[in-house]
Amino acid sequence: MNSQLAKDSKVLIVDDQVLAKGYMKYSLEELGFSNITYVDKISLALTTIRSQRYDLIICSYNLKREQDGYYFYDEIRTNGELPSSTAFVFISADTNSDLVQSIIELQPDDFLAKPFTVKELDRRLSRVLARKKALHEVYVCIEKSQYPRALSEVELFLANPKNSEFFPLALKIKGEMLCACGHFPQAKDFYLAILKVQTFSWAQLGLVNTYLRLDEDESAEKLVLRLAFKSDSQLAAYDLLTALQIKQNDFETALECVLMATEISPRNIRRHKTALDLSRITHDYETQFDAAKKIVRFAKNSIHDKPENYLNVARAGIDYAMTADEEDTDKLIKQANEYVRQLKVAFPKAELQEQLKVINIRLHYLENEKEKARALIEQLDEENWENEGVDALLDKAKAFHELGLHERSQAVLEQIEFRCKNQSDQGEIFLQYIQQEIKEKSSIKYSSRELNNNAVNFYRRGDIENAMESFTQAFTIMPKNASIALNLLQLIAAKSHNIGATKSANQLVKKCIKTVENSVLNEDQQERYHKVRSVLDGVG
Question: What is the pLDDT of residues 306-321, one digit of tens each?
Fold first, then answer.
């Protein structure tokens, strides 16, 4: 260890194990560090870094009090409280697959597995601090969001042969700064030139990003699919693949990609939120409910923990119950109520009367207590929409629609659309979902539950035309429901002389078949489907 570098470095240690802290103190002092601060809680660490600047933060990944190291790192990085010039090193006695994936994803400056020797600590910290010192001017520009200047600084750095030890990192930063400056054609040429010399994963991922920015989607897809099979680039590849599918409006495939990523790294809240948005736009109510529950689970004791998470689980549970079989409805209602109870315990002082009132309206509707729902809905505040979040307004629009108050429902949805177009905090997927809701709810006047019941009644009375219309509308908003898909296929088969008349009719048949074949059918449904396919295959 360079003695002057150690002496000049201000260090923060975050660890709640007394013995570990003692060993770390001994080791760092052996290496020449003297300006060392120790804290054993994340709350203390946050207070400390908000009042002082550190050159090095060494944090235990497995803290047992309050937040753990993962959420601490996530919080200070999200809030811009971790300067680029500050080195961050995780330490842990655990090396399970979840931790390894988290480290790959978070990309701290280094990770040390316990137990480690003073010699190993010396080697790792010397390397990390030397990098930070060498590229200090570049990092300072990045911290100030002065990306053109950072690009100039890193090019000057690369022009000096004395810095060759740090060229791989400097090259990576150069690619990032080219993209940050919006120089995507130059970034593309830069990454291609790098890859001719060595196939760095970061350069391949950077190239995919530039392909996407330059609308070279086919090239992006070919490369990113290869990267999805490499452990060091898998998560980033799934993120880019998700972005590509969203760009192409293939929301079903995008949802599959983001769900695969959440399986690999389940603690990433951002991906669960993307899954939530994608499941909404694809009418996948079960996945929406599951994503909302995971957000609550993984957000606890983190920067992401907030009342809205619990409310969204209750709302998603109600959405799912609206489309589920009757035997599952009671279970889903109980789960929605349980999350409302957890919300009141976790955030007892939160002012949520209006949102909870809307949830109760929808629960009354689900339980066929429509008079109670109608009496409660007249008590809602329709004057102060600007004080409500978009998720709260969306739930209100659904409540109005379910009770037949279609004009009021449309007014709320249009208010959400206006807000999404004029506020940057709502993503493009959510805006497209709201526009889809406006279109569907203006043409489909019944709730999902009513549509299915109406269709069955029409069919039993022999009113095939109205049954067909109702089942088609029901399938539009419940495309994962195998029973509806099977009933619709039976009606199509009964009108087999019209099959293939239009492209939309063929697409509808394919969607129904996909839903049925991806579902678990009982014996009666299997027999019905076999007969229907025989008719459809004969016509085809």
Answer: 999 999 999 999 999 9
Tokens of 483: 């029973």
CA distance 401 to 417: 17
Query: Percent helix, strand and coil across the chain, each rounded to 5?
Result: 70, 5, 25
Query: Which domains are seen in the chain, by residue range?
Result: 3-144 (3.40.50.2300), 232-443 (1.25.40.10), 448-538 (1.25.40.10)
With CA atoms as reference, report the closest residue to 170 among 185, 153, 183, 186: 153
- Residue 189 clears pLDDT 90, i.e. is over it: yes
| Helical (H) or strand (E) element with 452 | helix 448-460
Q: Which residues of 99-126 are buried (b: 16+ CB within 10 A; e: fewer)?
A: bebbbbbbebbbbbeeeeeeeebbebbe
Of 335, 327, 240, which Cα lies nearest the Cα of 292?
A: 335
The 3-state DSSP class for residue 461 equals coil
Q: What does the pLDDT average to over 444-458?
A: 84
The DSSP output letter for 199 is -
Sign, CA dihedral 465-471-474-475, equals: negative
- SS3 for 455? helix
The number of beta carbons lying within 10 Å of the beta carbon of residue 381 is 12
CB within 8 A of 148, min separation 6: which ones? 181
Tell me which residue has tokens 């409500």: 388
| Alpha-carbon span 396 to 412, nearest angstrom | 8
Show Cβ contacts of residue 58 under 8 Å, excluding neighbours closer than 6 positions. Answer: 11, 12, 13, 14, 15, 24, 89, 91
Predicted confidence (pLDDT) per residue in 372-412, tens digit: 999 999 998 877 777 789 999 999 999 999 999 999 999 99
pLDDT > 90: what percent of the chain?
60
**Cβ neighbours of 153 (radius 10 Å):** 23
Report yes or no: 111 and 156 within 8 Å, Cβ to Cβ. Answer: no
What's the pLDDT tens digit per position in 253-302?
Answer: 999 999 999 998 888 899 999 999 999 999 999 999 999 999 999 988 77
User: What is the crossing angle of helices 482-494 and 523-539, to 10°?
Assistant: 40
- Which residue in 320, 384, 381, 307 sits closest to 350, CA to CA? 307
The pTM of the whole model exceeds 0.70? yes
